[in-house]
Specification:
Elements lengths: L1 H20 L1 H5 L4 H18 L12 H14 L3 H7 L1 H28 L3 H10 L4 H15 L5 H30 L35 H25 L9 H17 L6 H21 L10 H26 L4 H15 L2 H15 L3 H30 L1
Helix pairs in contact: 1-3, 1-12, 3-12, 4-10, 4-11, 4-12, 6-7, 6-13, 6-16, 7-8, 7-9, 7-13, 7-16, 8-9, 9-13, 9-14, 9-15, 10-11, 13-14, 14-15, 14-16, 15-16
Length: 400
């Protein structure tokens, strides 16, 4: 167990080193765990196929790291943030939730048309498109253990990476087309977004984040204790809910963490430092993802590679159409709405950093869009994981 975790940490830092030196990886915001983990899995595949060496891993700590990450997501789900963002955040959250449901319907429908397991449709739906690598690994593990769907994690990681790259390529052209077609311009004297949203994304790369005041040992211990207590309570909640529906192990912890956060905000009995929560969540995610990726069995991709590519190609087209005809129109049909549409392509197919990168490229060319930078990161980092998990769970239980 310790050897596997230590190897994951080494592979993770190898990923950081490679990512810094290969510009295209940085351009598309490919996370360091994905870089290092995939390369290690590829090397392990070559060694296995040539009969040189085979690896056997003890991934006991993979699930605790996963649950800790999603617990940190729950601790960020403050109702106060919804008040700061106002109706626009609620509206965009609803639009993002609608997209997640649509992605699953498309994935399952095409999978059935192609005569493959509909679970592949879910993997190429909101599990990896809206959910990204973290949600993909979590639900992939659930499918392998409870649905006897071999290779689910491998397929999920491949689909999430495809989505990440596609989202980075798609957002800029979509936003540019809307801005130029409707001759949109930035709103003058728009208020800037709150400063505390600057580090809202938990899957931001920690080797590039802005330096800030280091947390004290007491703050770290307090935050770790809160996360552990939420995980403890969450295991009881998940165990009870698991009698009635199939759901991933982290759902209960997310619920408990959100309750703890909002009780703490209301009573002021505990002060939860969001920066510390984000840092611990990012560390847990990095180790969890690296461990999941480096233990992939890449040979499991062979049989389903073509059906998966067909479904993912349709998802990319649907994302572009959805951003243009739904996100842009319902978010106000103005300049900020066009920038949000470009950002939605980023996290609707990949991750919040992709959304921010897409929007940044647009505002650098056309001008500031403060409302977009308030709404999109808030929904992508804190709120969509809750509704996405519920939608996926509903589809899983329906397919069962």
């Amino acid at each position: 167990m310790i050897q596997t975790t230590a190897l994951a940490a080494v592979v993770l830092f190898a990923g950081y080193g490679i990512r810094r030196r290969v510009a295209v990886l940085d351009r598309f915001n490919i996370p360091a765990p994905v870089v290092g983990g995939f390369l290690f899995a590829a090397a392990a595949l070559v060694l296995r196929q040539t009969g040189v060496l085979g690896f056997q891993f003890d991934t006991t700590l993979q699930t605790p790291f996963m649950v800790a990450f999603f617990t940190s997501i729950g601790l960020g789900a403050s109702l106060g943030l919804l008040r700061v963002g106002g109706p626009q955040v609620l509206l965009f959250w609803g639009i993002a939730t609608l997209l997640a449901a649509l992605q699953n319907g498309i994935g399952v429908g095409i999978a059935r048309l192609l005569g493959v397991d509909p679970l592949l449709g879910l993997i190429t739906g909101s599990i990896t498109m809206t959910g990204g690598h973290g949600t993909g690994a979590a639900f992939g593990k659930l499918m392998e253990e409870q649905y006897a769907f071999p290779g689910a994690v491998t397929l999920a990681m491949a689909a999430a990476t495809f989505g990440l790259v596609s989202g980075g390529l798609l957002g800029g052209p979509v936003g540019t087309r809307l801005i130029q077609r409707f001759r949109l311009t930035p709103q003058p004297a728009a208020p800037p977004p709150p400063a505390n949203l600057e580090h809202a994304s938990l899957d931001e790369e920690i080797d590039t984040e802005v330096a800030g005041e280091a947390p004290t040992a007491y703050q770290l211990l307090q935050t770790i204790t809160i996360i552990l207590v939420a995980m403890w309570g969450g295991s009881l909640v998940s165990g009870w809910l698991g009698r009635y529906i199939t759901l991933p192990s982290y759902i209960g912890a997310m619920i408990c963490a959100a309750i703890i956060r909002n009780v703490a905000d209301a009573t002021k009995l505990i002060r939860i430092e969001q920066r510390t929560v984000d840092d611990l969540g990012t560390i847990a995610l990095a180790l969890f993802l690296t461990m999941a990726l480096m233990t992939l069995k890449l040979w499991e991709l062979l049989d389903l590679a073509l059906p998966m590519l067909a479904i993912l190609s349709v998802q990319v087209v649907v994302m572009a159409l959805f951003a243009i005809y739904v996100t842009y129109r319902f978010m106000g049909r103005d300049y900020d709405a066009a920038v949000m549409a470009g950002g939605h392509c980023g996290f609707g197919l990949g991750a919040t950093p992709n959304a921010v990168a897409n929007m940044t490229s647009l505002v650098e060319r056309f001008g500031p869009a403060p409302r977009a930078f308030l709404v999109v990161p808030m929904v992508g980092a804190f709120f969509i994981d809750f509704t996405n998990a519920l939608i996926i769970t509903g589809y899983l239980n329906f397919l069962r």
